[in-house]
Amino acid sequence: MPRISAATVADHRANQHAALLEAAREILAAEGVHALTPAAVGARIGLARSSVYRYFASTADILAQLVEDAFPRWSARLRAAIAPAGPDSTLPGRIRAYGRAALDFVGSPDYALIPALQAIGLPGECRVRVDELHGALIAPLADALREAGADHPALRAELAWGVLRAGARRLMPDAAAHVPEPAATDPDDIIEITLDVLTRALR
Predict the structure, then answer these.
(1) Which of these, 62, 60, 64, lies nearest to 52 by C-alpha position?
(2) Of 51, 93, 139, 203, which is the most exposed, with the fewest CB atoms less than 10 Å away?
(3) pLDDT tens-digit profile of 91-118?
(4) pTM (2 d.p.)
(5) What is the pLDDT of residues 132-157, one digit of tens each?
């Protein structure tokens, strides 16, 4: 029987689950979705594959649990970023703060979830849940636009997310190889241009 490394069995399982999720996030970010398996995740923290299956049924289940872990955290960050506080509480200032927080997503290991979800077939109920969680990322922007009296705030926010996704793609390490010259390559320039286009689009 494995040694319990926490005050209770429940705490031990929670700690083990958190360690497995972190290992899965690291594998996904460094090696891609094809390297992400229950066995690989377990091996990374020294846990037998049979034990890993107590937490994950499959690679798709790992991805679904990573989404459940990551998206609410980023939703909270985006909502905090666009809150009417700080030195610039104007709507354009709040939109820029939201956009900058959204672009921070690119630099995090969580961002590897986006191409992974596109590459692997998730069950229907998982896709529905992913769509719900994705909507929660866009909701803070839609709410701010609604408060400002914009018409069709949800549609505007959805379209604005497209601007952020385009900027995010340009921030990826190999982006320069896939765009025509001349192209902005300095990350700060890409961020500023993206935020400028975002705020202009939502005037």
Answers:
(1) 62
(2) 203
(3) 999 999 999 999 998 778 888 888 888 7
(4) 0.80
(5) 888 999 999 999 999 999 999 999 99
